[in-house]
Design brief:
heterodimer; A: alpha/beta; Transcription Regulator spoIIAA; three-stranded parallel beta sheet; two-stranded parallel sheet; 3 helices; 5 strands; 21% strand; globular; B: alpha+beta; 22 helices
Chain lengths: 91, 724
Amino acid sequence: MTTLALAPRLDLSHASELAGALRGHKGADLVLDASAVTHLGGLGLQLLAAAAKTWRAQGHSLSIQPRSAAFDEALGTFGVNLADLQSEEAA
Amino acid sequence: MATDPMAEIRASFFVECEELLESLQDALGEMDEGQHDNETINVVFRAVHSIKGGAGAFGLDALVSFAHRYETVLDELRSGRLAITPDAMKLFFHAADLLHDHVRAARDAGPVPDGAEECLHDLEALIGDRAGPAPEEEITDFQPMGLSFDFGDMDDGMSASEPPAWQIRFTPTAALYASGNEPLHLLRALQALGTAQVTCDLDGLPDLDALRPEDAALGWTILLTGDLTEAEIREVFDFVEDVSRLDINQTAADTPAKDFSMNFDQGLKNPLPPFEAPLAIAADPAEVSGPEAAATTPTTAPSPAVPQAAIPPSAPKEPATPTEASATVRVDLDRIDRLVNLVGELVINQAMLAQSVAEAGLPPNSAVMTGLEAFMMLTRDIQDSVMMIRAQPVKPLFQRMARIVREASGAVGKEVRLRTEGDATEVDKTVIERLADPLTHMIRNAVDHGLETPDKRRDAGKSPEGVITLSAQHRSGRVVIEVSDDGAGINRPKVREIAITKGLIAADAVLSDSDIDNLLFLPGFSTANQVSALSGRGVGMDVVRSAIQSLGGRITIHSEPGKGTRFSISLPLTLAVLDGMVVNVAGETLVVPLSSILETATLSEGDIRALGPETNVIHVRGAFVPLYDLGAELGYRRPKSSYDGGIVLLTALENGARSALVVDAIMEQRQVVIKGLQRSYGHIPGVAAATILGDGQIALILDPADLVQNASGRTRAADLALAG
């Protein structure tokens, strides 16, 4: 299983980078390491959600583990469940 | 990504802050002068409000909190519930200073400035109970509070006793992200207002491949419960209203009630568009054939009716600031300096070309000559334009001084008013930056030593409030900045006594008034008997003088007992290029700045009058002007026996005095590029800089005023130097 470490700031400054990285891992199970995330912005959130949707559609698993407190706090503020950003599909 | 867009947006926010702080100071100044109209007060309010809003977008909490509390008090002022008193004005100024500190602290990630809490406390004491941690009452012509009871019978869940609930639909556009705003901060701010239930509309989200990273694809629905007005909610979105879609409806506490929107629309200035669920437009993955289609069609954005280009304003409010700062471009100073240097080289190159053309002996009306003339004019235009980029008004500098005056006068218990004149005068940016320290020192000196205590002023029949005037103007191609006070003037006997005690002058030295005044510039001189908190810490006027000199400037002092003291700083306008007259003296080529030359003349026997054993004056237009032989002054030759038939340049000094400089020949008039000498050689009396002429020869650029000053030994034009 591949692990992708996420950048500390997931906002406008890193959106392109994040999109590129996620697209590069398409078609396989993936674990995202969000332990270093200090700021999850709207643009980062929508990329992660879109990725989860794509992974689900392709039948691969996507999980975010481990996560920083800032990441979880931002999810709460955004009103998004962790499940929305993950894919439970077995490969 | 090569540059961090967030960092850029952040930097431009702080640039904007500086402008807002400037207008804040301006408007406060006008208020202080008795202008209490609504517009002026509004300018003050808006400046603080805009800083708060921008800071909110970046999560600068300390700044937001300070600005918010300041704004709350200003709002009372705006609504006429708070009167403008001198004490209140002092607090407003102090708070503006602290706001400036907060902005700096936020920018440099420095510590929160001291004294903020006390200042806010004092400010809030002005408005008594109306202050508080809750956001301020927003003045609006729409009062939604009264409407809630009308709908009590329409829904069982809504009873009069329950706090009203608001349904907020917030859909950002790409422009919101591009302008550095962040929904996360806005949602947090909403959650701070009351109990919020946030739902993210994820359904319309496209596939990862179809999603462009900078596009906005999410929207939120927030159910907010709390004792709130719509205006309070809208305030959260104040700075993103034109870059997002926002619908706010009042609803029952627990039920999402779309139907109510129609009823509420009657009270709103702008009817809310019917809500379209994101699902309706949700991009069907089947429709989105590939990334290309996704990149070009707005259908990929699930935001209801928010195409990327069109940004429908949800309410016609005051224009939001963040997206409007497009009239200026921020450019790295290094790039401008490079441009200035290149233009300098261009000027030299053009001079060389002109020389070659002249040597080729072409007829004056040849195509080459005409072309060269056009080229010269273009060069001149480019040079002027480049210089204009670097020139900045002295106003921000003067505003900083206003703060120094406030702080210094508070520290020594004197009443001081600062008057500024000519703050639109433009000076080279480097000069402005390097003037801050010397000016601060001079202002502190004026407050501490120049002005008397209120009691003494009353005794002297003056107003207890002292006035310090700071002025800037262009004079003789230079910038003259003056700091004057209406204090007691220099206590010359005391200055003399101290100079003798400190061994700076001999006890029996015969000194004129201006000689004594100039003792202040001697290193180690300080008239204060006690070291005060403000000045007298061993940093004297000598440091000020050397700072001014390092800028190619001069400082002079004028004092009248009982009436005050005036310091004049004269500075070159630019540090790069000047118009000069190329002259020949004893076989040497020299450049005299054209700005200092009044006229040129050929001497005849009758014009020259002897004055004393070694000096001459010439008679020009009814006045006598001291004569200096440049060749002798610069040590190129011994004074001539006769100057009959000699050529003189009549120069003007900043103080209005004139002098006549004898040269052997005037060669031409041209632009020269200043090449500083001071870094390599230090200050050379009478020489400002050097330049490279068209033929590659190096020539010294003279500073006539400095030359004359050193030639005569003292500033007094009556003290004549060698001649005849």
